[in-house]
Amino acid sequence: MRKLLSFVIVLGSLSLAVVAPVAGSAETRTVTLAVENMTCALCPITIRKALEKVDGVIEASASLETKTATVTFDPAKTTVEALTKATTNAGYPSKLKE
Question: Strand, coil or helix: what is 70?
């Protein structure tokens, strides 16, 4: 009986681990921002770090070549406006790329 209970607990934990990422992924949003003032290889690093400080940001990257930043975030915790404010405060004004 004890082994059966342990098995059920482990099985339940595994099923939660599988379901949790799927549920979380439906609640994320990914956007691309057009970013101004990028001139050197350090600019994308600065932009990425500024975006990562915004509560709700899951992943951020920036490209000097395309002068864009791609951000995956939880829309329940932050907004596109908060993301563009973060880049602007870091010296790189941005707007949602259409």
Answer: strand
Identify whether the C-beta of residue 77 lies closer than 8 Å to the C-beta of residue 65.
no
- Residue 27 and residue 43 in contact, taking contact as beta carbons nearer than 8 Å: no
Full strand arrangement of the beta sheet holding 29-35: 57-63, 68-73, 29-35, 94-96
pTM check: above 0.85: no
33 class by beta-carbon count within 10 Å (0-12 exposed, 13-18 middle, 19+ buried): buried
Higher pLDDT, 10 or 74: 74
pLDDT band at 21 (very low <50, low <70, confident <90, very high): very low
User: C-alpha angle with apex 92: 89 to 96, nearest 5 degrees?
Assistant: 100
| Inter-CA distances, 19 with 11, 42, 56, Å | 12, 38, 20
